[in-house]
Amino acid sequence: MHRWENKTIHIKKRFKLTDDTYILVLREHIDFIPGQFIMIENPMATRKPFILGYFGEDTALAIQVKGKGTRWIVNQSVLKAHYPLGKPFIPPQGKGITIVSPASLTFGCSMFRVYGTDVLLGSRKEILTDIPFTYVIGDSAFADKIREIKGHYDYYVVNGSRGMEKFVYDTVGEGVFVSLEEYMACGIGACKGCAIQTKDGIKHVCTDGPIFRGDEIWF
Q: What CATH number does the domain located at 96-217 have?
């Protein structure tokens, strides 16, 4: 696992993926393994976690604006952060698919780049830029697509809303992995605020995750 570092990051380019989700392309190259995340400082809270990813050849973050903190972050040119954090995700053998919301598209890009998974984006809103993956708009179309791909892959990695993740787990069952990075506060195991009850006892999202098997957390 990489050692985390406090650093300054610079935004090379930003653009809208949907009307409330932005892709921030970083000037810096960050050495990370899919599943690891970054904690970004902002004046409204101590730090906010975002899973690390790519867009094209660049390190990038997908950020949905949900309040003052995320609005502030997407409008900055320079940010303070520490990274990479978390336990890298090493997939099981076989063919996989990464299922993402707009706010985790860059994670899907990293899974495609590093592990060669297929990528499916499910969105409730119009996609405003070209992306190199299959996407569906609306809950009904997403549900139909998940039922269609059930049984076609050896593993399914889901990073989206909790409702999206639970639907995929309930529909597909075995072989589903989900990401819980939004539950973290410090990101380094100090505050213990990200403790969750799992089938195997208490675990901490920032150090034991953020990616867990679905049957670990829904049992």
A: 3.40.50
